[in-house]
Design a protein that fits this description.
The protein is 50% helix and 14% strand. The protein is an alpha/beta fold. The longest helix is centred in the middle third of the chain and has 19 residues. The radius of gyration is 16 Å and the shape is globular.
Length: 193
């Protein structure tokens, strides 16, 4: 099963575009799994979401260890699934690294947390300016979404990290949804051919 990861700052369109790519493959007869991290229906994921909405969350080190633990738990389960062509992820391990570095954690330590996670076929970085977050999502912002300085640093981290990856692309996500999707499909189908 090949992994296609969607990354980007909050409200960049990851959920929308990962679902559209899922539909694209599904409608062409491919067996596809769509998964969003953190996992909404897992014990670890629910605890993470509670922390992101908390005014007094656990410390950054523990939080980023939980992000990695959630991914490890899910990927172990998904690795047992057979017969699937693609796993499309709304966030993957690069988000833990980009956000963790923005919160002052060491790149090498963050990378070590994700060492057992399979490499994706490709990572699609959906790029928007951080000021776009409050235009796209006006209510119920979590502690990451509501921090413009953090989002600015995360965006810079994504763009820097992408230069070191052979299998990543940055897509302008300020364009209309259909145009962004068309750009993603063009990139992914070229990669697969």
């Amino acid at each position: 099963m090949q992994i296609i990861a969607f990354e980007g700052i909050d409200s960049s369109g990851k959920e929308t575009q990962s679902k559209l790519l899922y539909d694209y493959f599904f409608n062409r007869g491919k067996k596809v799994i769509l998964h969003a991290f953190p996992t909404h229906n897992s014990t670890i994921g629910q605890f993470i979401y509670k922390q992101l909405k908390s005014k007094t969350p656990i410390n950054d080190t523990a939080l980023h260890m939980l992000f990695a633990a959630d991914r490890q738990n899910v990927m172990e389960y998904l690795s047992q699934k057979t017969g699937y062509d693609y796993l499309i992820c709304d966030r993957y391990y690069l988000s833990n690294i980009a956000y963790g570095m923005a919160r002052g954690l060491d790149y090498n330590w963050l990378k070590l947390l994700e060492r057992d996670i399979p490499e994706p076929l490709t990572t699609v970085i959906l790029d928007i300016p951080p000021t776009e977050i409050k235009i796209r999502q006006k209510v119920n912002l979590d502690i990451f979404e509501d921090n413009l300085a953090l989002q600015t640093q995360v965006r810079e981290n994504y763009l820097t990290l992408t230069t070191n990856l052979n299998n990543a692309v940055v897509i302008n996500a300020t364009l209309p949804i259909k145009k962004v999707h068309d750009n993603i499909v063009s990139y992914v189908t070229n990669l697969l051919n």
